[in-house]
Design a protein that fits this description.
The chain has 122 residues and is mostly helical. It has one domain. It is built from 6 helices and no strands. The longest helix is centred in the first third of the chain and has 27 residues. The two termini are 21 Å apart. The model has no long low-confidence stretch (mean pLDDT 91).
């Protein structure tokens, strides 16, 4: 059975994923042309994206009930990977070799810090 800290760490990573999705939504909205400033900011895509941002803040706060605060930035770094992958899928942006290497290093850092924090490595 997974430890409580692992479950709550996954909750924080889910929050980072939701934040990444909302960032992609905001970028999609920014690529459109609007008749007025009010329509630019008060359209459904923007409103839903900001609601999602608020929701992922609550999710992260919930996850921090168990996960040490020092581990939160490490887990939140998964958002960089999510944004890059989602940008590739939905915005058709290309990934450079440097970005791919960066994502591998971020993933390795998250795994090392998470395993060490969970008490497997001491």
């Amino acid at each position: 059975m997974m430890s409580e800290q692992v479950i709550f760490s996954i909750i924080i990573v889910i929050g980072a994923f939701i934040a990444s999705v909302s960032q992609i939504m905001l970028k999609k909205s920014a690529q459109r042309t609007y008749d007025s400033r009010i329509k630019e900011y008060l359209n459904p895509l923007v409103i839903v994206a900001y609601i999602m941002f608020f929701g992922c803040t609550l999710i992260t706060m919930y996850g921090l009930k168990v996960v040490p605060l020092s581990l939160s930035p490490v887990l939140e770094a998964s958002g960089y990977i999510f944004v890059a992958v989602l940008s590739r899928i939905f915005l058709k942006e290309s990934l450079t070799l440097r970005q791919i290497i960066g994502m591998v290093l971020i993933t390795a850092g998250i795994v090392i810090c998470s395993v060490g924090s969970a008490g497997v490595i001491k």
